[in-house]
Design a protein that fits this description.
single chain; 2 domains
Length: about 160
């Protein structure tokens, strides 16, 4: 983590997202299992509606930054922006329900991004890109595991 600058509290609730981006640029890291910041449930930070809102907003802003980086990401954003926003928001609200008694509705976050996903884009995302991405991650994970084992053997760790 120190190689990529470490954890920076200046980014607040989105520091996890920024750290992941820095790590991902340096190493073969592809995806976390849960939306960033939700490990803080135990600290009661994420049970606040404002924290969930900020997590969803910051993630959307970050995606917009990524979509603006080059022609490929601009095209990707054009086709999949709404699918990615709605998938992330739905997952975030699912996680929030697990820990919090405070009810929130999906429409409470409509001012962040309110365009509904195109059904064809959603189908393409789920049936083609998501599956291809999962397969790619599996191959990379296997490759990284073998490289890690070779590294441990090289430095004398069993």
């Amino acid at each position: 983590m120190l190689n990529v600058g470490g954890f920076n509290d200046d980014f607040g609730i989105s520091a996890d997202l920024v750290l992941y981006y820095c790590i991902e640029k340096e190493y073969s890291v592809y995806q976390t299992l849960d939306p960033y910041g939700f490990y803080r449930w135990g600290q009661n930070t994420m049970s606040k509606k404002e924290s969930t809102y900020k997590t969803i907003k910051d993630n959307n802003d970050f995606r917009e930054y990524i979509f603006s980086k080059n022609i490929f990401t601009k095209i990707w954003g054009f086709f999949f922006r709404s699918v990615m926003y709605h998938s992330f928001t739905a997952r975030s609200l699912e996680m929030r329900k697990i820990i919090s008694d405070h009810y929130v509705e999906y429409k409470d976050y409509a001012d962040i991004y309110n365009k509904k996903p195109n059904k064809i884009a959603y189908w393409i995302w789920r049936k083609i890109f998501f599956r291809a991405y999962q397969y790619h991650k599996k191959i990379e994970t296997r490759k990284n595991k073998h490289e890690y084992k070779r590294h441990l053997k090289k430095i004398g760790v069993k």
